[in-house]
Amino acid sequence: MEKKNKMRKIGNLFKQIVQFENLYYSFKMAMKGTGKNKSTTRFFFHLENELILLQKELQNETYQPGDYRFFKIYDPKERLIAVAPFRDRVVHHAIVNILTPVYERCFIYDSYATRPDKGTHIAIKRAQKYVRRWKWYLKSDIEKYFENVNHDILMNILKKKLKEKSLLNLLEKIIRNVPDKKGIPIGNLTSQFLANVYLNPFDHELKDHKRIPAYLRFMDDFVLFADSKEYLKRLKLEIESYLMKHLAINIKQSVTCIHRCSHGLNFLGMRIFPNYIRIKRENRRRCIKKIKKKINVYEQSLTQQPLYDDPETIQSIECIISHMNYFCPNIKIWNF
After folding, report:
1. Contact 139, 251 (CB under 8 A)
2. Are 307 and 298 in contact (CB under 8 A)?
3. pTM of the predicted model as reported, rounded to 2 decimal places
4. At a CB cut-off of 8 Å and minimum separation 6, what does 136 contact?
């Protein structure tokens, strides 16, 4: 009975996406953290007309997404980030606002990232619970995941849940609006959402068919726990076969490993042990480097603002450490 409910198609969603109230709310969400560039301020200045025009284009199915602006970041590895035009970001929020409740009902419990109340720290806490319970773990992630998402497979997955052709056409326009006609761009809200949708069949394969009791995934990073090393070795081969056959993706062999839980699990920037959690050494070094850089800028008077007036870096590091201390209240944090 449960499987039938998962496969039931949902309709009457496109109308909710293109409602003016949803588009206005999506505009406010898209504005958060956005700089005052030319396209954003123009959209804001002509807000009502822009939203009405966008609504008409969506309703008439004449809407076409614009070109991305690309740039690279190094944190710590190189990533190519895509920035959609502002009006497209409004559409992305409008879609995700409505589709999130639909897919929340069919995502597994232990799927994390870009989900309500399913962030990094909750995933780390859950991982430690499994580390305490099981003897071995298999950890891996997907080789160039966002770059290798297959458009046809993704559309077929969406068609199993979504009924309306107008909604599927809109999603397909966004999905296929990439230069290489393959993959989904890092940086899009819709890409983050669809990345979870794409791996949802894999999640259910492990939980429903393989009956894996302890498994969690954070975007394309995943960990399975068991009491048998040989069992995890066999499972690794089955996972490789399933991912290639059904999703046309591969695991990253260089980071795939099977280890004892008592030796610690590297996951989401942390080193997780049964009784305590540490920041990974390389992440700790990077945090210290960022703090020293801020201090040097302040001491050399290269900025007129004091250090505490530009607190994002310091606050983010404090947040990481405070959550680690919360998971491990009896362990003192070392001094920097």
Report:
1. no
2. yes
3. 0.84
4. 225, 226, 227, 228, 229, 232, 258, 259, 260, 261
